[in-house]
């Protein structure tokens, strides 16, 4: 997709649904020019507000739908904004299950104006079923107690810290936002169910012995809607190291009447699953998302979890990802 | 699909890949006229051998591709046989991931001849993501130690036995063969990964308190390629009762270098997964596939497993499904 970007936030009011826009603004700020919000929008990723016409005047090339609602469908009242962006001179990118290119009015406008639509959630290749064979190289997978808890940010922060220390590490995107940030990957929840593990095997291929793929996790093993994706991703990634992502103040799965089990149970469940394809898999650290907590609360949570679980714990955005990378106990490079 | 059927077995040599043909011959014999085998074919579902021309002369309406290889792709050398069937006057049905209708030569032949192609593995509707909310009515799900172990046959035998006893029970198909047998269902491994649990929720909807959906299981939680599908199906089905399907002489997963864990571990893993969405879930029986064992071996396995596990055990095709239905402890109807 051609940068710079205008990030479309629609009229979203639900926590966490702006994660595509927030992820791009956090990890690729140099590509993000502004945000475009409709009346009533409760999201704000901290960029200047502008509409498509103003964004084009400032040099924007592509408007990205930065909000992904549950199920990945697009509210009808966003169509006019998408078409306005095309008419203003922008390409449009999105990570919804529903393809923008399949919506007749949007397709027609893009064709008429000669603009490009990027539906990044659609796999652009076929996959094989998994084979469960051990691959060379090392892999780290972030797993979580729930969705929207920090699995992508944690993986990106680990990649950054490992590279800063001179290690050979690649972030491997498995979601639409991660893919937009990294420019490659596979949107694992959009592949045909039979090929989840096979797609994950493809994503982190055979590599040199000291190479690390840092794989972005998806969903949660204890989530009634998404655990299948999570399990296939765990099996296909055959991680050597797992990092559990947690939000200390969360008690229930987002939007569901499901209590989050104790951390120790989450850890045991994920490690047991990972050991099917990699008997050496172990949980090395807990990554906490403390973005809705004060510094004191964050530090207290960190201390409490380290004592309770006996693993290093940190918020990679607040404390840095150093403790997680230390826990990998890598040879100095 | 219009019956009667000619079942195409290709030149398959791998155990278990003829399960669509075998399932139809076993459960819908009144619809199956013959089998069409290429030189070198090692499969035999016990029907008269005939080619498409002869099948048409005897009244066949549709040729069904009765073999599904790993990954669901069609070998190129089968194309000529499919086209020969179309030219002889037959429609063609298949349950492959790869759509027959997407293969240009087959599509062209069908269009030219005015025949219908049925690609039953393609979902004909969209699904929502799962919501994990408890539904009324009762559900039984067959799970397994591996693929191709008897999950579909067990579910069909339970439906037959329950109906014979006057209970309100419906087989719910989740695979291409089950769907061809039942005439409805969802091929769960062909849905988009994000919707596995949601599709399973759709398949066994809210029902009367004494209604039982008997859901066909898929894959295995301990299978490195397919466990994601299995887990989503377990969560979405929210079974009250689970039946573990087993082949006593199998030591490794089919075609893989993975040892099958002890039955007690398989049971614990499946029950733990099911309790996420139905805390009352329990394993009620073990169904064994003794088709490659002598009567004495089958009876010995049954006795041994009952002693080891403490649950009723039977081969529904050899001993009848009575012991499994007894284990549900239903009120007399």
UniProtKB/TrEMBL annotation, chains A, B:
PANTHER family per UniProt: DUF1611 DOMAIN-CONTAINING PROTEIN, GLL3100 PROTEIN
Domain D-glutamate N-acetyltransferase-like C-terminal: residue ranges: 129-325
Lineage: superkingdom: Bacteria
SUPFAM superfamilies: P-loop containing nucleoside triphosphate hydrolases (SSF52540)
Protein name as annotated: DUF1611 domain-containing protein
Signal peptide: none
The D-glutamate N-acetyltransferase-like N-terminal domain, residue ranges: 40-123
InterPro entries named among the record's database cross-references: DgcN-like, DgcN-like_C, DgcN-like_N, P-loop_NTPase
């Amino acid at each position: 997709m051609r940068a710079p970007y205008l990030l479309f936030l629609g009229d979203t009011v639900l926590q966490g649904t702006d994660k595509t826009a927030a992820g791009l603004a956090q990890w690729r700020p140099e590509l993000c020019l502004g945000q475009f919000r409709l009346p009533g929008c409760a999201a704000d990723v901290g960029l200047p507000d502008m509409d498509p016409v103003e964004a084009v005047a400032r040099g924007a090339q592509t408007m990205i739908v930065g909000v992904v609602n549950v199920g990945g469908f697009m509210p009808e009242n966003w169509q006019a904004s998408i078409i306005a962006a095309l008419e203003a001179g922008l390409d449009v990118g999105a990570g919804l299950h529903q393809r923008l290119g399949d919506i007749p009015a949007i397709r027609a406008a893009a064709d008429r104006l000669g603009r490009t639509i990027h539906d990044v959630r659609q796999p652009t290749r076929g996959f094989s079923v998994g084979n469960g064979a051990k691959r060379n190289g090392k892999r780290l997978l972030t797993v979580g107690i729930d969705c929207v808890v920090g699995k992508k940010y944690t993986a990106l922060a680990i990649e950054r810290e490992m590279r800063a220390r001179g290690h050979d590490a690649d972030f491997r995107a498995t979601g639409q936002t991660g893919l937009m940030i990294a420019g490659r990957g596979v949107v694992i929840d959009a592949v045909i169910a039979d090929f989840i593990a096979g797609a994950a095997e493809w994503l982190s291929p055979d590599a040199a012995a000291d190479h690390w793929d840092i794989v972005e996790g998806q969903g949660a093993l204890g989530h009634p809607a998404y655990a299948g994706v999570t399990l296939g991703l765990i099996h296909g990634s055959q991680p050597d190291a797992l990092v559990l992502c947690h939000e200390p103040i969360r008690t229930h799965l987002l939007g569901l009447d499901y209590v989050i089990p104790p951390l120790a149970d989450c850890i045991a469940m994920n490690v047991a699953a990972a050991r099917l394809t990699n008997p050496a898999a172990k949980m090395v650290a807990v990554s906490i998302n403390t973005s809705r907590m004060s510094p004191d609360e964050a530090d207290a949570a960190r201390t409490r979890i380290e004592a309770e679980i006996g693993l290093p714990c940190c918020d990679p955005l607040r404390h840095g990802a150093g403790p997680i990378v230390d826990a990998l106990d890598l040879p100095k490079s």
